Amino acid sequence: MKKVLSVSLTVILGIAVFLFIITFSIGLPIYCRFFYYAQINPLNIPESTGYDFATIKTAYDQVLDYLTLPNRTFGAGVFKFTEEGASHFADCKILFDLNATVLIISTVIVVTLLILEKFNVIKLCRPFGCSVALISAFSIFVVAIILALFIAIDFESAFITFHHLFFPGKDNWTFHPDYDEIITALPQEFFASCAVLIGASIILISAGIIIFQLVKRRKRLDK
């Protein structure tokens, strides 16, 4: 019974670490709004929209408030939008809420299990003599590298593939700037920057965990 419990908790921790790295990284461009603010002028968004920095920032904040906070009605500041365009943001909100939920749950699981193991309340397995955190980090590191290469080769195709995967059977994400003006404030270059930030975060966090676990394993073997 203890063996089954140990294996089960180890698998749960491995999955939780994997999901934490992904959802934390995805959350960076979502919750760090200054990441968008810093790109407003470099991407020439005031020129492409005809609005100043403060107006664009206000519109972006309203959109993000809708996507990340409960009981908000969709709005995009001074930018016009269609019902179809608003429905796409409603679809996005589902994914944003899912990411936040998984991030919170995975964080609680990782912290709780590591604390319990630290105080010898539970005993976790070490597959192949390695920490499950090391295995999870290495797995997501490899996946991230492969995806990064695919995105770097052809971001537009990756962008389209992403929408087909996460919004199956829908085409309301193909905004027309004359009717859904908010898209002029969200150029593809911004989403490319988000992809770079997410990918870099996944790779750096995974690499950090891998290095930490390898050093820890080396010290344990040297004893």
Q: Can you give a write-up of this model?
A:
With 223 residues, this protein is mainly alpha-helical. The protein has one domain. 73% of the residues lie in helices and 0% in strands. The chain contains eight helices and no strands. The protein has helices at residues 2-31, 34-40, 45-49, 53-68, 83-118, 132-153, 155-166, 188-222. The longest helix has 36 residues, at 83-118. The mean pLDDT is 92.
List keywords for this structure.
elongated, about 220 residues, mainly alpha, single chain
Distance between the termini: 31 Å
Strand % is under 5%
Our count of helices gives 8
What's the rounded overall pLDDT mean?
92
Shape: elongated
Order of helices and strands: HHHHHHHH
Could you list the spans in which at least 5 consecutive residues all have pLDDT below 50?
none
Secondary structure: helix percent: over 70%
Global Rg: 21 Å
